[in-house]
User: What shape does this take?
Amino acid sequence: MITFLSGGTGAPALIRGARQILYDSDIAVVANTAEDFWVSGSHCAPDIDTAIFLFAGILDTGRWWGIKGDTYATHNYLPKVAGGEPFVIGDRARAVQIARAALLKKGWTLTEAVQAQCRALSVGATILPVSDTEAGLLVDTGTGRLPLFEYWTCADAGTEVRELIHTAPVRPAVTDEVQAVIEASDAVVIGPGNPARSILPILECVGMRDLLRDRFVVAVSPFQGDSAPDPKDTALMYAVGEQPTSPGVFRLYGDIVDVFVQDFHDPDEVPGSLRLEAHLLHSRQAESLAWDIMAVIRHAVS
Amino acid sequence: MITFLSGGTGTPKLLRGVQELLDEREIAVIVNTAEDTWLSGNHLSPDIDTVMYLFADILDTGRWWGIRDDTYITHDLLARLGIEEFIAIGDRDRAVHVARGEMLRGGMRLTEATATLCGKLDIQATVLPMTDSAVTTYVKTRRGDMHFQEYWVKHRGDVAIEGVVRRFREPPVATDEVLCAIEASDAVIIGPSNPVTSISPILECAGVREALRRQYVIAISPFIGDAPVSGPAAALMRAFGKEPSSAGTYSLYEDFVDIFIQDTRDPVEILGALRQDTLMVYRGKSLDLAKSIMTLVYGC
Assistant: This one.
């Protein structure tokens, strides 16, 4: 079993590559929940949905979120009768959000609700939210506070990010299911998601770093130094006090990482890192990177 | 101005005719909200929606609810995900529920939310929920109390009922808008809607009966003999302790009604009642009945 820590778009792209090499049943995904929030009466969980849709074979891999071929009847009608929604929700994606909301309102845990959805959509992999308690992040823009996902999808590129604020009064903790699946894994792969947005919220959950210290962990940097990162990626990294570079990512992950992977062309040197083609522009590159990572893991844990 | 008291089918059929005779700005509709419910995280208000969709000219007049040519993508996938909505919510219809749900969650009154929706849908008529507080019709069955929508839509009325109850946290009070509309009208028309589940909830709102006693009121019976023209009225009337007929209907309205209209085929004799063809099976029939009623109100 290999566990992936996943959020954003980079990590799911790597997981898609890994699916060419591993059986779905040998893959576990621990998904970021910092972008979860309630919208239009239903439960939006972008990173969980992306993972579910990927393994259900219905992910729109052009955008890395939403369902391929979805329709937008409700979303398009909303501006006609009200102010509209902050971001685009497809009719099928909305059904997934409503169904999850209904299960949560019945008192199910998020983990149980996600497992039920995975069964309904014939997902073979194990997909787990990192935590069952609320873990949403708000972006303090100086003029207001936006849910992280709304900032990511709707805010202007120049929007200031002063601080990331936790909505929950207490730090979320990893679930028993997450603990069990990581303990049963040969290795944990931290996909190339933006650390501030997608990975740190996972690592910050109570118990997560301790679990990872006992595992073989491969982390892939999402930054390539010379190629300018997205302005929002940059702003979020600065908000957590780091540069949007591979050394910055390495410092944020700290002592949990056994092998740190950077792109061949990255000019910022992280001592001891493994240089691979980490630029995931198309599926062949992702498959190739996944192949190399699996080789490293096989070599290290056997 | 003329004010109508409306439920979900009978009165909207009459409104379809009235619409062609009056300037829409001269029509106010006070709508039953005792069938409202929160569904899939959003606010379903079946009778308000039907009336709004009628005036917005998007109503599915085959069923008298929902939006014409709507799609059901979300509803269908929900079923696959194990969530059975008891009523098929169309995707556009859902947008209206989402919009209202968001407004109510934001602290708006139902009256304001409805006015906002009407404005957006370019509706000239005044559509008013009977009250801003929550009141819900439940039917008593052997399996316990059941939401009326569940009884009628999910079980198709195929459950024995022993009583009808209204549940609320605080007794419903008619809004100021409702009482003003009644007072400012030339007449109030009670359409052929279900007396137990559509009209009585409106009459039970504090202030409505008193306002109606001071007004000129025309009521149309939904019964021909002991059978209602449509819907589950007969069983409900019995459970409500009333005879399922025009006589039972009249007894609910008699303290304020000025003119009571029965169908020409109705064998039940009510003294002083006016006979009209009340079976509004198509547009022209709606128009005929509307014309007769307008004549009663305005003469010639």
Q: What stands out?
A: Residues 283-301 of chain A form the longest helix (19 residues). Chain A touches chain B through 28 residues (CB under 8 Å).
